[in-house]
Amino acid sequence: MDQEIKILHLSDLHLDVSSFRDQKVVLQALFKDVASEVEKNGPIDLVFFTGDLIAKGAYTTGNIELVQTDFLAPLMQAAAIGPNQLFLVPGNHDVCQKEKSSIVASAQKDLNSEEKIAKYLEDVFKQQEGTGLEGFNGIIKKINNTDLSFSNNHYAAYTSIVKELKIGIAALNSAWCATGAPSDGDYGKLKVGRRQMDEVVGVLHDADVRIVLSPTQI
């Protein structure tokens, strides 16, 4: 069965209230182009955003509202999609270093093996310490994508039916260990971990098509 799936892939907006006058010009052009594409060539099936939604992890009340009202809502309208067609993963700039607890930050410094990464992830799922991902995860919850098959406070898996195909979407997270180091100090140091891969692959094993989402700065 030959099926065409149309995907819109976006990333690296670094939205911020203080810079939004200039960013708004770019976004309006984007929404216009997306709406024109839909009008000419039909609906988009899936929209992916892979990292750095907000600038420098500044998940303030103003920036969260900005993302919801001035990016996500008009994007879904332009693309003619619903929440179940929109999928986001965090980038290193989506980690709010100010919200990361000292315990978590300290534990992340010595993750030099798959065993240590797996143990860290197991521990961080259970605790209530700040990971710096709270702001980003809050936006994900408000999107309310009900195709969620598996999730924790670091990564998720979704199963979506598109044109009679079962699409498995692995929303991986390589940004959880970002330190916010200046001059791209996190470049090449971000991690996924075998545990993430094993869990999401297990959940999506029966999908007709499997798609992995992850920020590019790993």
Tell me what portion of residues adopts beta-strand conformation.
15-25%
| Average pLDDT level | 92
Q: Secondary-structure element order, as H and E?
A: EHEHEHHHEEEHE
User: Which class of secondary structure composition applies to the elements?
Assistant: alpha/beta
Shape field: globular
Helix proportion: 25-40%
Q: Give the terminus-to-terminus CA distance.
A: 35 Å
Write a structural description:
With 218 residues, the protein is α/β, with parallel strands linked by helices. 37% of the residues lie in helices and 17% in strands. It is built from six helices and seven strands; from the N terminus they run βαβαβαααβββαβ. The chain has helices at residues 20-41, 61-79, 102-107, 114-126, 134-143, 194-203, and strands spanning 7-10, 46-50, 86-89, 148-151, 156-162, 165-171, 209-213. Helix 6 links the parallel strand 6 (165-171) and strand 7 (209-213). Helix 1 runs parallel beside helix 2 (61-79). The chain is globular, with a radius of gyration of 18 Å. The termini are far apart. The mean pLDDT is 92.
Give a short overview.
The protein has helices at 20-41, 61-79, 102-107, 114-126, 134-143, 194-203; strands at 7-10, 46-50, 86-89, 148-151, 156-162, 165-171, 209-213.
Element layout with pairings:
Layout: E1 7-10, H1 20-41, E2 46-50, H2 61-79, E3 86-89, H3 102-107, H4 114-126, H5 134-143, E4 148-151, E5 156-162, E6 165-171, H6 194-203, E7 209-213
Helix pairs in contact: 1-2
